[in-house]
Amino acid sequence: MSAVTSQKQTAPVVRQYEIGGVRYIVKATIKDGAKETAVKKIRRLLQNDLSKAAT
Predict the structure, then answer these.
(1) How do residues 16-32 score in pLDDT, each as one tens digit?
(2) How far is the C-alpha of 41 from the C-alpha of 36, rounded, in Å?
(3) d(Cα 16, Cα 38) in Å, to the nearest integer?
(4) What is the pTM of this model?
């Protein structure tokens, strides 16, 4: 049995946002075994971008 077929499938979360007259449709899924939350990942990405901009 491959790893792909043995993973539990969950329905994705789909949200719609409108920012500055532009409509964004966001589809989010959760991966089993993930080691960081979405909040922690976004924080890490922002911090990396800010540190690159400072140098």
Answers:
(1) 999 999 999 999 888 88
(2) 6
(3) 18
(4) 0.46
